[in-house]
C-alpha cells in the first residue's frame, strides 16, 4: 500500500513556498542546509548558496566508506558541487538520509 506524501504535490512549474521542510546536517568542518530558499553547503569555512532556481538536481548518498553523508548540488551549467559530512554514528547517517530524502523530494518536485 503506498504511503501518502508528507506534503502536497506542487503544481507543475510553481515556485517553492516560503515555508516548508528544512534539513540540517553538520560536522566540525562541513555542513548542508536545505530549506525553502535553496541549498547551502559549507566546506572548510567556505559557504556556497544555491537558490532553487539555480539547481538542476541534488543527490544524496552514503559514502562507500565510513559514516559519511555525501550531498551533491548540480548546477544548470553542469557543474557539480559536493559536500561530505561525517556522522558520529552509523545510526546518525541513516537518520540524516531518512530525513533528507523527503525534504529534497518536496523542493525538487517544483523543478517540474
Low-confidence stretches: 1-12
Q: How many alpha or pi helices?
A: 1
Overall helicity? 10-25%
SSE topology string:
EEEEEEEH
- Strand line-up of the largest beta sheet: 1-2-3-4
Number of strands: 7
Name the descriptors:
disordered N terminus, alpha+beta, 112 residues, three-stranded antiparallel sheet, four-stranded antiparallel sheet, globular, 38% strand, single chain
Question: How does this model look, in words?
Answer:
Strand 6 and strand 7 form a beta hairpin. The N terminus is likely disordered. The chain has 1 helix and 7 strands. It is of the alpha+beta class and 112 residues long. Helices cover 17% and strands 38% of the residues. The strands form 2 sheets. A 4-stranded antiparallel beta sheet has the order 1-2-3-4, with helices on one face. It has a 3-stranded antiparallel beta sheet with strand order 5-6-7, covered by helices on one side.
Topology of this structure?
Layout: E1 23-26, E2 30-35, E3 38-43, E4 46-51, E5 57-62, E6 68-74, E7 80-86, H1 90-108
Antiparallel strand pairs: 1-2, 2-3, 3-4, 5-6, 6-7
Amino acid at each position: 500500500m503506498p504511503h501518502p506524501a508528507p506534503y502536497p504535490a506542487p503544481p507543475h512549474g510553481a515556485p517553492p513556498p516560503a515555508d516548508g521542510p528544512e534539513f540540517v546536517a553538520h560536522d566540525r568542518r562541513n555542513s548542508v542546509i536545505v530549506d525553502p530558499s535553496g541549498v547551502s553547503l559549507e566546506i572548510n569555512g567556505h559557504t556556497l548558496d544555491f537558490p532553487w532556481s539555480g539547481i538542476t538536481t541534488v543527490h544524496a548518498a552514503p559514502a562507500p566508506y565510513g559514516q559519511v553523508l555525501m550531498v551533491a548540488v548540480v548546477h544548470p551549467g553542469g557543474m557539480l558541487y559536493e559536500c561530505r559530512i561525517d556522522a558520529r554514528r552509523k545510526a546518525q547517517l541513516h537518520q540524516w538520509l531518512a530525513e533528507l530524502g523527503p525534504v529534497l523530494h518536496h523542493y525538487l518536485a517544483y523543478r517540474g
